[in-house]
Amino acid sequence: MTSTQTWPAPVAAGPVDATVALPGSKSMTNRALILAALADGPTLVEAPLRSRDTLLMAAALRALGVDVEDEGADWRVRPGALRGPAAVDVGLAGTVMRFLPPVAALADGEVTIDGDPRARERPMGPLLTALHRLGAEINDGGRGALPFTVRGRGGLAGGPVTIDASGSSQLVSGLLLAAPRFEKGVEVRHEGPPVPSAPHLAMTVAMLRAAGASVETGTDLWRVASGPVRGGVTAIEPDLSNAAQFLGAALVTGGRVTVPGWPAETTQPGDALRGLLASMGAEVTDGPAGLTVRGTGGFRGIDADLREVGELTPVLAALAALADSPSRLTGIAHLRGHETDRLAALVAELNALGGDARELPDGLEIRPRPLRGGVFRTYDDHRMVMAAAVLGLAVPGIEVENVATVGKTLPGFTGLWTAMLEG
Ligand SMILES: O=C(O)C1=C[C@@H](OP(=O)(O)O)[C@@H](O)[C@H](O)C1
Ligand SMILES: C=C(OP(=O)(O)O)C(=O)O
Fold first, then answer.
1. pLDDT digits 0-9 by tens, 168-178
2. Whose alpha carbon is nearest atom 3 of ligand 2?
3. Residue 63 to residue 94: CA distance in whole angstroms
4. 325 is in an annotated binding site
5. Does domain 6-23+238-422 have CATH number 3.40.50.300?
6. Which of 154, 189, 190, 204 to pair with 290, CA 20 to 30 A apart?
7. Which residues contact 17 (CB under 8 A, 6 or more apart)?
8. Mean pLDDT for the chain overall
9. pTM for the whole structure
10. 224 strand-pairing partners
């Protein structure tokens, strides 16, 4: 997925004025696929995201015996008897590497699971230990990381388990999503520093309940009863985290961007953009046309705890570098285990353009300074491409390395970006 050519991030010629329709949510699409694979009948997944992360999930489920077929813009999923032998490639998708192994443990046969070199470094051990305690046989050579083999026996006992999910909420979501199919369901208790990404855990619970599962929650506690998973129709919302760079463009250029189809109620963390961009000085309005963000001229930095919405950090950091006052983004130590060490990558790339960013133990401090053009490295991280594009609106001469890596969640990004700038 790498290319040696860079992408010249376009400078905004003036205030943007655009409506940007966004493809489906990665997080909802990959949860919908897992639940559909475990259901007792077919599911129509409406308006799913088609990107590297979701195509890898679809391929992984097909390898286990699930039928995932295009039906126009939708996906029709027909569950089958889960079976190995199978080889699964998770790429660099956290959702695939954490949601698929519990499903593999329900299969009959061996499932080998591997991914990109960086995926082998992302937090995984607590999930493997938990699965082992719940009755799975996994051979990971003692590494607690990819690659590993799940020796599925056609079912899993389940029951109570304690896990340290401070490295990633997905370690919990993975256990919960497959749990209706465990013989005893599951009771997951978290022990350790705080679990990040609370909205994503709420999304897991909401989507399980919508599929008919019985879920109880407490503080750092989730209980899913054993029982059937219903098929039917699951509509995927637009990806609100992928709205960040487009709405941010309104702020940077003093323009206006509308995202149609913004849900009135949602568990997506991107919904927090409304408050975050407003506190930077944007005017945010909700109407029949969608969510509109208007930049009113200059904009200020923020002091924000992003623990719940960590995936918004790269774009917010780019905005912070262009703001009128300093920013502190905290609660995000776990971003060191994302697609790349995002704290280190953002500091390195902002400072290479003349910026003043530094790492905090759990975040970033960014002081706006005049920036210059240069090559912006993206570390196989889709959100580094998005951050670079935001900077490029105001800073001439930014050349984005390996722009294709944005296809992890938004393959049409450069087209959408150019169309937004053209109005
Ligand atoms: O469950 C999910 O769909 C996600 C959870 C979050 O992971 P972490 O809790 O590891 O940050 C988020 O950053 C990721 O983009 C998607
Ligand atoms: C952290 C992210 O992805 P993943 O699902 O791979 O964890 C992200 O999309 O910002």
1. 999 999 999 99
2. 94
3. 19
4. no
5. no
6. 204
7. 255, 256, 257, 423
8. 97
9. 0.98
10. 186, 215
- At position 217, the amino acid (one-letter code) is T
Q: Does 310 contact ligand 1 (Cβ within 6 A)?
A: yes
pLDDT at 3 over 60: no
Pocket of ligand 2 (CB under 6 A): 93-95, 311, 338-339, 383, 409
Over the stretch 63-81, which tens digit does the pLDDT of each residue have?
999 999 999 999 999 999 9
Helix (H, G, I), strand (E, B) or coil at 284: strand
Residue 27 annotated as binding site: yes
Q: Annotated catalytic, 311?
A: yes
Evaluate whether the domain defined by 26-223 bears CATH number 3.65.10.10. yes
16 C-alpha to center of ligand 1: Å?
Answer: 30
Residue 311: CB within 6 Å of ligand 1? yes
C-alpha span between 152 and 105 (Å, rounded): 5
Atom number in ligand 1 closest to CA 200: 1
- Distance between CA 413 and CA 318 in Å, rounded? 17
* Residue 197 in contact with ligand 1 by CB distance below 6 A: yes
The segment(s) of the chain belonging to CATH 3.65.10.10 are: 6-23+238-422, 26-223
pLDDT digits (tens, 9 = 90+) for 38-64: 999 999 999 999 999 999 999 999 999
Choose, from 187, 237, 308, 311, the residue flagged as catalytic: 311
